[in-house]
Design brief:
There is one protein chain. The chain has 14 helices and 16 strands. By secondary structure, the chain is of the alpha/beta class. The protein has three domains: 105 residues, 3-Layer(aba) Sandwich (Rossmann fold); 71 residues, 2-Layer Sandwich (Dna Ligase, domain 1), CATH 3.30.1490; 192 residues, 2-Layer Sandwich (D-amino Acid Aminotransferase, Chain A, domain 1). Strands 9, 10, 11, 12, 13, 14, 15 and 16 form an eight-stranded mixed sheet that branches. A four-stranded parallel sheet has the order 3-2-1-4, sandwiched between helices. Helix 3 runs antiparallel to helix 5 and helix 5 crosses helix 6.
Length: 411
């Protein structure tokens, strides 16, 4: 099917990756509706900025902006396929599905399901109920963080329970995730967070030992019939190191040898038990002490690095189109392609990936041409984008060297 228009919510690297998937499968340029135009979606032929609304995250503005877009784009003649590319937009889409359903086609869980799983402490309760492992976890609040007692030893991971609210706060030395090695660091970090606009709970977790390559990332697509249609597991080689990028991936290997059948079956059963619809993204880490995969979070959307699935031969956009627009039945697909996905330059991987066997595998995939960069597309070249791309890649060396290993309350 080609006579449709993808409408992507946001303008970050995730939006560009989804737009690239749509373009490669259907030859279509995606429209973006966003709060601001970020660099990933500038000077590109794959994304057309259709609306910029700084107040897009406000309920009435969200609905009004999208309905206005639909009415000006002949939604009756050409189906509009709406795709959330951020947690907050998924919540808004779920909350206003009845107002938007006459204009757009989309795959989105009901609001309560999103809220039950997007908030991290709710997600851990769901994991416990479904027999999924996660790190030892506690919470603290703006009222009790000074007296908070940990049920495990330091180091302690500190992160926001409400990702959307944390994204919109600011304070000196803010990081997406913090690591406190002792009580003094813990007190300083929590005081800094609660000195900002963020006043929701904080998640306090035991640190799972191991390098970045012990992480795993799982992307899934669940159909309108609440059946899982796609599971794609990747092995990160390296995480990003910048304060806002901690927890995002800089490079991911896809290989069927990483597909753990027992893990994938547990995740399939979990998604179907909770009645999920649309894209989902999970971060987890292999704990060599127990032989278990410990889940960290579930994102109610495709992950920022989800183009790694398309790069491995399983186009993310196709699963959505075949379900929502073409209504094709489908069995479960478990991705089994081999590829190397990167957002960082290859030279950064060579320097900072410590495992020689993984470096060798990455080198072999690059040499054989089974390598994709999130933000570089041969069909999307221009001098403006090329100049930005070259500068951003060079900047990766500088910022990785500056921030490598720093998850404390410093720059």
């Amino acid at each position: 099917m080609q006579n449709f228009q993808p409408v992507l919510l946001g303008s970050d690297a995730n939006v560009y990756g989804m737009a690239r998937s749509f373009y490669e499968e259907y030859g279509v340029t995606s429209d973006a509706v966003c709060k601001a135009v970020l660099v990933a979606c500038r000077h590109t032929k794959l994304v057309r900025i259709a609306a910029v609304e700084p107040r897009l995250e406000e309920d009435e503005v969200f609905v009004r902006t999208l309905v206005s877009y639909a009415e000006s784009h002949d939604y009756r003649a050409r189906p509009l396929l709406l795709v959330s590319c951020a947690d907050g937009y998924t919540i808004l889409l779920a909350r206003h599905r009845e107002a938007l359903a006459p204009y757009f086609h989309f795959a989105c869980p009901d609001l309560q399901t999103v809220l039950d799983l997007d908030i991290k402490d709710n997600f851990y309760r769901a994991c416990r109920a479904h027999g999924l492992s996660f790190p030892q976890t506690a919470t603290c609040t703006a009222q009790n963080y000074r007296q908070a007692e940990l049920p495990f030893d330091f180091p302690c991971i500190i992160k926001a329970s409400n990702s959307a609210a944390y994204w919109n706060c600011s304070f000196p030395h803010k990081k997406k995730v913090f690591l406190a090695n002792n009580r003094a660091e813990f007190d300083a970090i929590t005081a800094a967070i609660y000195g900002s606009e963020y006043q929701d709970d904080l998640i306090l977790q035991e640190y799972i030992p191991g390098d970045d390559n012990c992480m795993r990332v799982l992307n899934a697509y669940c159909g309108l019939d609440r059946q899982v249609r796609l599971l794609a597991l990747g092995r990160p080689l390296l995480e990003e190191q910048t304060p806002e990028g901690i927890g995002n991936y800089a490079a991911i290997l896809s290989d069927p040898e990483y597909n753990d059948p027992a893990l994938l079956e547990k995740m399939r059963a979990f998604l179907q038990d909770v009645g999920w619809v649309g894209y989902a993204n999970f971060d987890m880490k292999y704990d060599a002490r127990t032989g278990e995969y410990k889940l960290f979070e579930m994102n109610p959307r495709q992950g920022r690095s989800s183009y790694f699935v398309t790069a491995a031969g399983y186009n993310l956009a196709r699963f959505l189109v075949e379900d929502v627009l073409e209504h094709k039945p489908a069995e479960l697909t478990v991705a089994a392609g081999r590829s190397l996905w990167m957002i960082a330059p290859y030279g950064v991987l060579r320097k900072y990936v410590k495992d020689p066997a993984l470096r060798q595998k990455a080198a072999a995939l690059k040499k054989s041409g089974r390598c994709a960069h999130q933000l570089y597309c041969k069909q999307d070249r221009s001098w403006q984008r090329g100049l930005w791309y070259a500068r951003s890649q060079l900047n990766y060396y500088r910022k990785t060297a500056r921030y490598y290993g720093n998850k404390g309350l410093t720059d």
